């Protein structure tokens, strides 16, 4: 199985801050990586697929980059509704696997 | 817009079989180049992919659960189902069904259903 490691595990930030979350894979993924946002008691929501493609309806302040083993999710200007947990997911091979999550908290 | 909804018993006893159904609305489960998956999440923990099924009926399962999992699809009812046998407390989790797209992203999710395993 491909192991996915996210960092940091949590980050405290203020509204308007730029936030960057990193995801590292145990083997190369090309660009087969997705990012999700999950709020408490809710299902995950797809933000980014194929490393950098913004899912329809997702605000443009979210962006993804990277290829191979290292990927980044950036929130350019944090909004109140963005406080949540974020997960990366490798889509290169089965079984699909997820990172451990990054919780974005209010500073 | 497609919507998914999980349903099943609220409680399962140890050693029994967990059975869940996911009903898809707003579109045909057999249209498009999609696949359908089950994912679970223990309280306070991360996401675990259980397996998936294609409209052809072929399946892929997580090796860690493969001996206990069966996923099936009923295109006439627009439903997919999950059976997990010989459950233990470690199988207590919120179970989600989700639709998978061409880049193996999961673009639509059900709200999830909590399944406690307890005697």
Structure description:
The complex is a heterodimer of chains A (107) and B (119). Chain A has 107 residues and is mostly beta strands. Chain A is 0% helix and 50% strand. In chain A, strands 2, 4, 5, 6, 9, 10 and 11 form a 7-stranded mixed sheet that branches. Chain B is 0% helix and 48% strand. Chain B has no helices and 10 strands. In chain B, strands 3, 4, 5, 8, 9 and 10 form a 6-stranded antiparallel sheet that branches. The interface between A and B is medium-sized, with 25 and 23 residues.
Largest sheet of chain B: 6 strands, antiparallel
**Topology pattern of chain A, helix = H, strand = E:** EEEEEEEEEEE
* Parts with pLDDT < 50 across at least 5 consecutive residues of chain B: none
* N- and C-termini, Cα separation of chain A: 36 Å
Please give the number of β-strands of chain A. 11
Unreliable runs of chain A: none
Amino- and carboxy-terminal Cα gap of chain B: 39 Å
The total of beta strands of chain B comes to 10
Shape of chain B: globular
* H/E series of chain B: EEEEEEEEEE
Largest interface: A-B, 25 and 23 residues
Q: Briefly note the structural class of the backbone of chain A.
A: mainly beta
Percentage of residues in helical conformation of chain B? under 10%
Shape by Cα distribution of chain A: globular
Give the radius of gyration of chain A.
13 Å
Strand content of chain A: over 45%
State the helix count of chain A.
0
Primary descriptors:
heterodimer, A: mainly beta, 7-stranded mixed sheet, 4-stranded antiparallel sheet, B: 119 residues, mainly beta, 10 strands
Explain briefly what this protein structure is.
The complex is a heterodimer of chains A (107) and B (119). With 107 residues, chain A is mostly beta strands.
Layout: helices, strands, pairs:
The complex is a heterodimer of chains A (107) and B (119).
Chain A: E1 4-7, E2 10-13, E3 19-25, E4 33-38, E5 45-49, E6 53-54, E7 62-67, E8 70-75, E9 85-90, E10 97-98, E11 102-106
Parallel strand pairs in A: 2-11
Antiparallel strand pairs in A: 1-3, 3-8, 4-5, 4-9, 5-6, 7-8, 9-10, 9-11
Chain B: E1 3-7, E2 18-25, E3 35-41, E4 48-54, E5 59-61, E6 69-74, E7 79-84, E8 93-100, E9 106-109, E10 113-115
Antiparallel strand pairs in B: 1-2, 2-7, 3-4, 3-8, 4-5, 6-7, 8-9, 8-10
């Amino acid at each position: 199985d491909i192991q996915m490691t996210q960092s940091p595990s949590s980050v405290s930030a203020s509204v308007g801050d730029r936030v960057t979350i990193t995801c590292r894979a145990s083997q190369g993924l090309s660009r087969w990586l997705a990012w999700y946002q999950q709020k408490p008691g809710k299902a995950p929501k797809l933000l980014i697929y194929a490393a950098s493609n913004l899912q329809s309806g997702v605000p443009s302040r979210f962006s993804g980059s990277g290829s191979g083993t290292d990927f980044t999710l950036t929130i350019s200007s944090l909004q109140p509704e963005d406080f949540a947990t974020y997960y990366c997911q490798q889509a290169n091979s089965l079984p699909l696997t997820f990172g451990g999550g990054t919780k974005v908290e209010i500073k | 817009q497609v919507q998914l909804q999980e349903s099943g018993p609220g409680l399962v006893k140890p050693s029994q079989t967990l059975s869940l159904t996911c009903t898809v609305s707003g579109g045909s489960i057999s249209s498009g180049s999609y696949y359908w998956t089950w994912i679970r999440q223990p309280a306070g923990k991360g996401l675990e992919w259980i397996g998936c099924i294609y409209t052809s009926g072929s399946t892929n399962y997580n090796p860690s659960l493969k001996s206990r999992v069966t996923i099936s699809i009923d295109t006439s009812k627009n439903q997919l189902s999950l059976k997990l046998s010989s459950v233990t407390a470690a199988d207590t989790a919120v179970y989600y069904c989700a639709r998978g797209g061409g880049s193996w992203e999961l673009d639509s999710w059900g709200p999830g259903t909590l399944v406690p395993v307890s005697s």
